[in-house]
């Protein structure tokens, strides 16, 4: 089940998206102080936000972790190389904005030492060998992304979330954003928050471009199958969780005790009139539920789908009518649940949400295969008739694509 964060059926991670910008993971060197929680006291608002609904699937992450996964999983260029790209751009700018002295044969001089002259051609060759292909693809892919993507307000909001996330990290370390990006992320060329926003948006547009390419070229049967497996009615329910003591010496006894406690609570509900059922359920949740993210709110979990909670939980909730509760405890990896269905919203027809299906389908492929983005970008560039004229850069590029293809083929052979 989503482990602590409900997910609406029609919202995707922007979460798993692409090549977002910052591809180094932030390493937290400080240990956040542990919180001591008292279950019988209502948590402070900010503490509740940090809790997770103990109904959600274990593999699901919190909102900001999803953002970072999107940023890190699908970014084709490492963040450290991005810093090199910025450096190269700065050098080129300097070269062409200032009048540069030349050698007798017309070559531009960019530096001298003890009479030794270093020319622009020598600098280009050196930079080309160290990060030339990466820099070239950064320019090419940015061009393609501009042609392919129309940025929406939702996209801008997402970029703001990413920037705000890193600002929070900067505050945590007690430094300004510029220092944090330089010291912890390797982005020494970014001076202001606006520049960082542009950087994030530019990289995110590349994510959207490759995602769109995958979705637009997907087979109809694959899209329909994805819809069938991942889209469902969304349900709002209240639940009471009785955890099983995982540290108990006698596991069977601990399981039995949790089950019996859940049965006793169901018996209390059975003795409650229909008019008082909801208030009684909420009272029992506040007094007994071990889900610290929901007990103070009467166990409420809103708008969950079959992909955002464990299968047993969703199946049990979907079989109930509005206002009904489970007459037997429902077991998940978190323990035993008593579920009261509040309402449900039918899933939209495939034809009405096909664009969303395409997007989610592409996201799922990108997140499950870390080589796919490289190969799909190669296809997308070819669609734009991309051709490298420099033999050195061309070889580096072709070798890198071939290496990914070989790796993918080897993995497939191993599976078979």
Walk me through this protein's architecture.
The chain is of the alpha+beta class and 416 residues long. Helices cover 54% and strands 9% of the residues. Strands 4-3-6-5 form a 4-stranded antiparallel beta sheet, with helices on both faces. β1 and β2 (116-119) form a beta hairpin. The longest helix has 29 residues, at 120-148. It is elongated. The two termini are 31 Å apart. Residues 1-52, 58-68 and 70-81 have low confidence and may be disordered.
Mean pLDDT: 80
Largest β sheet strand count, sense and barrel closure: 4 strands, antiparallel
Distance between the termini: 31 Å
Write down the domain tally: 2
Quick description:
This protein has about 425 residues and is an alpha+beta fold.
Layout of helices and strands:
Elements: H1 45-50, H2 63-74, H3 79-97, E1 109-113, E2 116-119, H4 120-148, H5 153-173, H6 177-185, H7 193-216, H8 220-230, E3 234-242, H9 251-270, H10 277-288, E4 300-304, H11 311-318, E5 330-332, E6 335-345, H12 354-368, H13 372-383, H14 391-415
Antiparallel strand pairs: 1-2, 3-4, 3-6, 5-6
């Amino acid at each position: 089940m989503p482990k602590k964060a409900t997910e609406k059926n029609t919202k995707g991670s922007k979460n798993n998206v692409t090549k977002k910008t910052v591809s180094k993971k932030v390493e937290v060197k400080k240990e956040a102080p542990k919180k001591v929680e008292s279950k019988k006291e209502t948590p402070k608002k900010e503490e509740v936000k940090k809790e997770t609904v103990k109904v959600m699937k274990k593999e699901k992450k919190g909102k900001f972790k999803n953002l970072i996964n999107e940023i890190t999983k699908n970014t084709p260029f490492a963040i450290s190389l991005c810093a090199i790209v910025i450096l190269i751009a700065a050098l080129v700018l300097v070269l062409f904005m200032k009048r540069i002295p030349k050698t007798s044969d017309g070559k531009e001089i960019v530096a001298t030492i003890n009479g030794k002259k270093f020319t622009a051609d020598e600098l280009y060759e050196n930079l080309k060998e160290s990060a030339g292909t990466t820099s070239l693809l950064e320019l090419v892919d940015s061009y393609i992304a501009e042609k392919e993507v129309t940025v929406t307000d939702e996209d801008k909001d997402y970029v703001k979330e990413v920037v705000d996330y890193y600002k929070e990290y900067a505050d945590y370390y007690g430094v300004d954003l510029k220092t944090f990006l330089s010291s912890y992320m390797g982005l020494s060329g970014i001076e202001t928050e606006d520049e960082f926003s542009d950087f994030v948006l530019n990289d995110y547009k590349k994510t959207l471009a490759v995602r769109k390419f995958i979705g637009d070229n997907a087979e109809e049967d694959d899209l329909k199958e994805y819809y069938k497996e991942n889209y469902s009615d969304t349900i709002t329910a209240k639940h009471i969780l009785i955890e099983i003591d995982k540290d108990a010496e006698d596991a069977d006894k601990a399981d039995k005790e949790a089950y019996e406690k859940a049965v006793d609570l169901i018996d209390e509900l059975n003795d409650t009139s229909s008019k008082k059922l909801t208030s009684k359920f909420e009272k029992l949740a506040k007094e007994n539920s071990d889900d610290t993210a929901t007990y103070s709110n009467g166990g409420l979990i809103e708008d969950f789908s079959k992909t955002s909670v464990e299968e047993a939980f969703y199946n049990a909730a979907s079989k109930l009518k509005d206002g009904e509760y489970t007459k037997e405890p429902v077991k998940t990896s978190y323990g035993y649940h008593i579920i009261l269905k509040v309402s449900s919203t039918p899933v939209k027809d495939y034809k009405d949400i096909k664009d969303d299906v395409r997007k989610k389908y592409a996201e799922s492929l990108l997140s499950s295969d870390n080589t796919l983005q490289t190969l799909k970008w190669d296809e997308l560039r070819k669609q734009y008739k991309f051709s490298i004229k420099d033999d050195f850069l061309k070889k580096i590029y072709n070798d890198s694509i071939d290496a990914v293809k070989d790796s993918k083929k080897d993995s497939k052979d191993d599976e078979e």
